[in-house]
Amino acid sequence: MTAERYHGVGAAPGLSIGQVVWWRKESPKVETQTVSDPDGEIKRFEEVVQQAKAQIQQLRQTTAERIGEEEAAIFDAHLSFMEDPAYIGEMKNRIRNQKKNAEAVCRDVTDEMSQMLASLPDEYMQARADDIRDVGTRILLLLSGVQPFDPSMLKPGSIIVAEELAPSDTAQFPPGVAGMVTARGSKTAHAAIMARTLGIPAVLGLGKTLEELADGDTLIVDGEAGSLIKNPDPQTEKEARSEMERQQKLREDALKKADEDAFTADGRRIQVFANIGSLNDLEAAVHNGAEGVGLFRTEFLYLENDQWPTEEEQYGAYRKVLEAFGDKPVVIRTLDIGGDKDLPYAELPKEENPFLGHRAIRFCLANPDIFKVQLKALLRAGVHGDLWVMFPMVENLSEVREAKALLDECRQELQQNGVETASSLKVGIMVEIPAAAVNADLLAKEVDFMSIGTNDLTQYTLAADRGNELVAPLYDAAHPAVLRLVKKTCDAAHEAGIIAGMCGELAGDPKMTEVLVGLGLHELSMSAGTIPEVKEEVRNVQTDNARTLAERTLVQESPEAVRQLATKEPLKS
Ligand code: PEP
Ligand code: MG
């Protein structure tokens, strides 16, 4: 056997070695038949729907226990399809009216609905197309009596190889799965998110080459680099095993010290905070040693509702987060809707370029009645902790002044009604539009802190849509042009004596920690899982060296050169 190397998308970091097990999904062959007893067929169909519901409920429960509530919520979408008259109801209508067998109508209605959802411009709705296909396959398998792949036969150390994995597949992974490799899928696929949460190294998007992997092959999976080695020679395998042990030890050591604050080797404090997207993320943030919350994305409150959330609902959620963190800072970002985040009940107009459109603070300032509900909830919740309010997508000074004026107006209205409001509360902005970074000196005079959102700042600086696979090779936050804007923002913050933080994905990349500290950031905020590692990196930083390194990144020719410099790898010629 000769060793072969393959490359895909590194979707969940980590290194592992194991044996290939193909997860083959049997899609039952469906033939259209006429049924003589439609009522009997509907009864058979309804029984299967009940069985499918029970399976999904079971999956939801296991996922909540093993992975978390947020991931488990994917199955709520599956369950809602099981109740949907346009889906299940339509199938029953067709069995009755067209006298077709349940298998055929299930195939047809699922195809039609998934195609319709996939054609919608909204990413959230497109993702529902995958969900409905998953549900449709489940019903078809039950109707046809075909046995699906049995995950219980997977031995520890298996590397699962599949065309594509749905959340309902990953949810069934037994403990000990060593890796995950698929032909399709991207970093943002549900399966990738689950793999990251479970700590399973994953390489996705292998395409047709996946067929070159056979059951029983030994595979080294490098989820960081996105590479695979099939049937490695003994020396390569030995080296990979010792690297795995080294990484494992680093992770364990970092986790042991996760609760300690992070100081550079020369004694500068860098605050390492958590980004949270819902209340379900709180536990992981605390467990991984977050020293506060650097970004609480409040969109979930709006997205999970079918009408504007009330002041009371919002107050309850904000208060919970503030109380969970006691006297530690909690940065709560006001509504960042628009762009790729649609809200059906907001009836947002269709825009040619939604990312350049009427989103975030622009929408909120244009709709003060909606905005003021959130601001009031924040002012009330701020009584229970150290609240920092942050406005997203700020582009100019008048937006900041207008938002602050609305905040004052809300405070006065509450106080007039005898309602207690936060006595001290910090107000800041996200720097995620290049104009804000360029004019950071002007903006810094109006606020208490600035937090750099590299996810948007990168897409706007490089004119590369953050969700478009075609321009994905251009989209890299380590681009010197982005780093120059980061530096400009940090310099302006220092000059004004305010805090410069970062809450975009770049902040959670341990390989860039030294550069970021060198650029002048005081605070880094990231998904909880990377906090221990980033804290460890901070502890190894010497500020002077970091500054020199950061200066050098600014004159590199490409993001690749920056990354190589940051990891101190020799530059490839
Ligand atoms: C960002 O743009 O970097 C950011 C943190 O905000 P979001 O990813 O929510 O747009
Ligand atoms: Mg953003």
TrEMBL record:
Keywords: Cytoplasm, Kinase, Magnesium, Metal-binding, Phosphotransferase system, Sugar transport, Transferase, Transport. Residues 257-542 form the PEP-utilising enzyme C-terminal domain. The keyword Ion transport does not apply. Residues 155-226 form the PEP-utilising enzyme mobile domain. Residues 7-128 form the Phosphotransferase system enzyme I N-terminal domain. Its main location: cytoplasm. The keyword Cytoplasm applies. Its cofactor is Mg(2+). One of its GO terms (molecular function) is phosphoenolpyruvate-protein phosphotransferase activity. Residues 225-248 are annotated as: Disordered. It catalyses: L-histidyl-[protein] + phosphoenolpyruvate = N(pros)-phospho-L-histidyl-[protein] + pyruvate. Belongs to the PEP-utilizing enzyme family. This is Phosphoenolpyruvate-protein phosphotransferase.
